[in-house]
Write a structure and sequence with these properties.
With 275 residues, this protein is α/β, with parallel strands linked by helices. Helix content is 35%, strand content 16%.
Length: 275
């Protein structure tokens, strides 16, 4: 039987998966196993845990003993927010020499099965976005109509109208970044902590002229545990979206040649419409 432990392969660029966790002790072992079962050469995982009351951090430590070279755990003192968790994980991955950095949730709403496709597409763009709102993208049918309507309005109307975003899934949390793209973004003081962090990253990427490719995904509801969405997170997203437009008003595209791809394209190669 083939081992599920990753085998380092020096000729392959290092790909790091950054997974923030808070009370994901049930999901994390299955997620780590599924990721390493993909047999992607030079794959590493960075778990950033915010001192989860359900002892996710200790679960991550035990997993690290199984994958000592390929699983890293960052322990933080308390619940400091999604945005700061990703920033910590991104910087750690970059310091470790990552060429590609994948961000995803631990709860299986983002399927590990998409990673090989992400890593194929990242060769032609700066960031691959796992999108629920391009053709072929789907949401879990168990979502309530209210949850679907709120997500659709935030992405298709609110963020795109206020910020002029071209990506259709502005709050997507399933992405693969090139090293240079992430380094360019992290030179700016990104301050969002809740889910609006995803909007801030998407907006800054477009302001810098980075090339984004949206590919359709099926967004499944979490396997176990409870959603971290709260009224305070929703409120932050509402007011901070306006602030982003002001904060980054002077940001201009990077002074480097861009590919023939539009700033944002969908998996079929067509630029997004503005409807």
């Amino acid at each position: 039987m083939m081992s599920t432990k990753p085998r380092p392969f020096a000729a392959s660029p290092a790909a790091f998966v950054v997974i923030p966790t808070y009370n994901e002790a049930t999901n994390l072992p299955a997620m780590v196993t599924a990721l390493f079962a993909l047999a992607i050469d030079n794959l590493y995982i960075v778990v950033v845990d915010d001192n989860s009351p359900d002892h996710t951090g200790q679960v991550a430590d035990r997993l690290q003993q199984t994958y000592p070279r390929h699983l890293h755990v960052i322990h933080r003192a308390g619940k400091e927010g999604l945005g700061s968790a990703y920033r910590a994980g991104f910087r750690f991955a970059l310091d470790q020499g990552a060429e590609f950095i994948i961000q995803m949730d631990a709860d299986f709403s983002h399927s590990p099965a998409y990673l090989p496709e992400f890593l194929r597409h990242i060769k032609t763009c700066d960031v691959v976005v796992g999108s629920r709102y391009v053709e072929g993208g789907r949401l879990d049918q168990r979502w309530s109509w209210w949850r679907y309507l709120l997500s659709w309005w935030a992405n298709a109307i609110y963020a795109r109208v206020i910020l002029g975003l071209q990506v259709r899934d502005a709050t997507a949390g399933f992405k693969c970044w090139r090293r240079a793209a992430l380094e360019a973004i992290l030179t700016y003081p990104i301050r969002s902590n809740g889910y609006v962090f995803q909007v801030e990253m998407a907006y800054l990427a477009e302001r810098l002229g980075l090339r984004a490719l949206e590919i359709p995904i099926y967004f499944e509801d979490r396997h176990a545990g409870h959603s971290k969405m709260s009224n305070s997170i929703k409120l932050e997203a509402a007011w901070r979206t306006w602030l982003l437009r002001w904060r980054y008003r002077r940001v201009r595209p990077l002074a480097r040649p861009l590919s023939a791809l539009p700033t944002a394209v969908h998996a079929n190669g067509e630029p997004p419409d503005r409807r």
